[in-house]
Amino acid sequence: MNVTRRQILAGLAGLGVVGLGAGNMRYWLGRPENVATHDYELIAAPLDVELVPGFKTPAWAYGGQAPGLELRCRQGERLRVRFINRLSEATTIHWHGIRLPLEMDGVPYLSQLPVLPGEYFDYDFICPDAGSFWYHPHTASGEQLGRGLVGPLIVEERVPSGFRHERTLSLKHWHVDKQGAFTAFSVPREAARGGTPGLLSSVNGTHNPTLALPAGQIVRLRILNLDNTLTYRLMLPGVEARIYALDGNPVEPRPLGKEYWLGPGMRIELGVLIPEVGQEIPVRNGPLRLATLKGVASSSEAAGAWPPPLPANPIAEPDLARAEKLRFNFEWAGAVSVGVEQGAAHSFWQINGQAWDIDDKSCVERPIATLKKNSHYIFELRNLSQYQHPIHLHGMSFKVLSSNRKTITPYFTDTYLLGKNETAQVALVADNPGIWMFHCHVIDHMETGLMAAIEVV
Ligand code: C2O
Ligand code: CU
Ligand code: CU
Description:
Layout: H1 5-9, E1 18-22, E2 25-29, E3 40-49, E4 57-62, E5 71-74, E6 78-85, E7 94-96, E8 120-126, E9 131-136, H2 141-146, E10 151-156, E11 165-174, H3 188-191, E12 200-203, E13 210-214, E14 218-225, E15 232-235, E16 241-246, E17 249-255, E18 260-262, E19 267-273, E20 280-285, E21 288-296, E22 324-332, E23 349-351, E24 369-371, E25 376-383, E26 389-393, E27 398-403, E28 411-413, E29 415-418, E30 423-429, E31 434-440, H4 443-446, E32 451-456
Parallel strand pairs: 3-6, 5-10, 11-14, 13-21, 22-25, 24-32
Antiparallel strand pairs: 1-2, 3-4, 6-8, 7-9, 9-10, 11-12, 14-19, 15-18, 15-20, 16-17, 16-19, 20-21, 22-23, 25-30, 26-29, 26-31, 27-28, 27-30, 31-32
Keywords: Metal-binding, Oxidoreductase
Pfam families: Cu-oxidase_2 (PF07731), Cu-oxidase_3 (PF07732)
Protein name: Multicopper oxidase family protein
């Protein structure tokens, strides 16, 4: 049986998760119970933006801005987004870092059919964890994310966090030339190395902005790396900054130190003491300035104290004593590209000897690992290459335990930046049934093989 788009629109796919057998195809198609109401109507559409002064860039935007509209909800509550596609091509939305049911995960042909031009899709899920998350398509990712379809999703704590001020900084480099025209989002020789970098930096869609913040106050900065390929060496020299959360999960507050490597898809939340009126502090990527924070007069408020740690999220604690160990090797295998002259995607990367083919919808039927529901696992992540890979898992968060390259204070995340030749151990409880994508978040690595599916049954 083949599932038609009309059947889905007519609601024949039914409620919740439905496994529809099509031969041995396993596509899950779902439809939220309540399509009558939603919290946001989010439109994806073309939008000309001025990244280079005096020139227009034909971006694609969510909610009329690129990066997209900041969506917010409260921990434990439902977020309902009616997503309307006014692009000229099919797309989906994936909610990066949110532990949600598979049919809301935005993976085409697995979670849902792609949303065609002119169609809409109602996303409806509970946000179990407070923190800084984000959303983006999971279709034609190099171009769709590259053109600006990336946006922050902020889940607020149930109770006040102790921060009275906050600001989101969405970091993205744009693949544009000096006239603002798009350049290639992925070129093979770069995809086979560190990924194809954009050349123009931006924070919240503006190159090198100055952000006014209340002088003398402690501000929660949510810094999100929404870039396709770049790892930012984040530095805030000359200011007191403490890390409060990493990738959507609280940590015991600690000084930022000299720098923090924020890979694609990763987020960091800092408490930052904003200096006196008129003083400026740079936000830098290594030696390069991304933005300037400037102290401006605020109300006659007294200086705030450093807030306590943020409350932990309700993530199941893996029991290492009974965890089963699984090994995942990430390696370069550029010599195996076949059929590229005939239009096939390049294949430069593999996980455990298998390359994902973005043109082959049946890849999801061959999960690289099958986990037993509610069992405990340690993943050993081995990078056998000279390039770093931000390794991301959908559907579940995992705890980073140790690395052969650095000292780790264990913490929960959805994306771990695996350095060159690094081996790291992470652990999780497989408590979310489904088929979950497991991939490098350097988009052109992911699109040239570095992706797999992990099944939880
Ligand atoms: Cu941001 Cu498949 O993920
Ligand atoms: Cu994700
Ligand atoms: Cu990678």
